[in-house]
Amino acid sequence: MNVVLDRRDGLVAGFALAALALGLFAPVTLNDGDTWWHVKVGEWILAHGQAPHIDLWSAGRAGQAWTAHEWLSEAIMALAFRAAGWSGVVAICALGFGSAIWILGQTVARRLEGMTLGIVLLLSMSLMTPSLLARPHMLALPLVALWSAELVRARDQGRTPSLWLAPLMALWANLHGGWAFGLALAGPFGLEALFIAQRGKRGAVFLQWALFGLACLAAAMVTPYGVEGLLLPVRLLGLKNLGGIGEWRPADFSHIEPLEVVLLTLLGFALTRPMKLAPAMTALLAILIHLSLSQGRHQMLLGMVAPMILCGPIAIALARAGERPERHRMVAALSFFAALVLLGLRLAVPLPRVDTQVSPISALAATPAEIRAEPVLNQYGFGGYLIWSDLKPYIDSRAELFKDEGLAQYGKLVDGDEPTLDAVLSARKIGWAIFAPQAKINAVFDHRLGWRRLYADKFAIVYVRQK
Length: 467
Known about the structure:
By secondary structure, the protein is mainly α. The chain has 19 helices and four strands.
């Protein structure tokens, strides 16, 4: 029997396997200080059989209410660490990335093929790769893909999205705070459905979408935090000092970056092959681009959602909207086998942690235990490693815990503002400090009476108070 293999299957599988391999073996996957404390909190969750409701890991906020909205991801990461060390943590996050790219590819390949499909997937991955880090958002990324794909499929079929998205939303809400984006994303699709519905049927369409939205909103409350979990994304986005944190900073076009390439490519295509996009989808695309420009972390959402809503208009503009041949199981089987081989290679080789910009391993090892027992003043990015090392940092990356006041104080501190430093040293009874070499505060400590430099390397400098 002759078997017709659609080249789109192989192309999608190739990109998914490339994404998996990148996540498994690229050093940048562990280049984030948050990974340390996520696994540490996950270990606490596994040990106590519950999600924490107060802060247990910082020096200045200990005992305050804290919503660990990513508790399920943290527990999964801790289980992976117990099973296979850091290789296990990397593997579970890389699997999330590869799965998301596969779901995205399958959705886009319904309308596109050949070089066009390859370019779209390449540009999409380029927007997601900067966020390829061993953190909870990678575990939730396949859910983002499934949610977006079902919204697009429901729109194309002229129906309300399936209610199976409600339990998906409950899972998403326990994995990552980005669940709120899922609810917001459904809005433009609902508006488009209402707009194109016949006048006499708009009431029914509105009711169907309202019930869908309420079901998913109720599902988002199925967490250990209930209503408080719903409010956290709003409170986090309301912080004024988020712009000082790397992933929340706006795009920088002083050098070429993937977002610029993507936007210029989209602009060039739209000028040469005009696309027709529904008003609601045009507004959604504009919002996604705005979010990506204003806060770097949202580029991943643009890379996931934009190809799904644009693949149809692109296919029509290119007059290549033909039916996809029936898929064959052989490609899926070979891809699954290749994925197992890649995962096996990663898990078979232990992944040691070394000094990086967020992991001052040597610097902490060179600091005597009696000094480490005293209150510390630390670089923002070092907070995760200090928590992992059973130390309580002055600050870490849980912006929702430290709020604008704490972030603003840290900003002045790291820039070497001496009145702020005097106040913090006195109030916290700081015994030592650890900062990145480029921090301006180092110049203050170098000339400050009663302090001396204990250790320095290219990743961290340690100062101790002289007795």
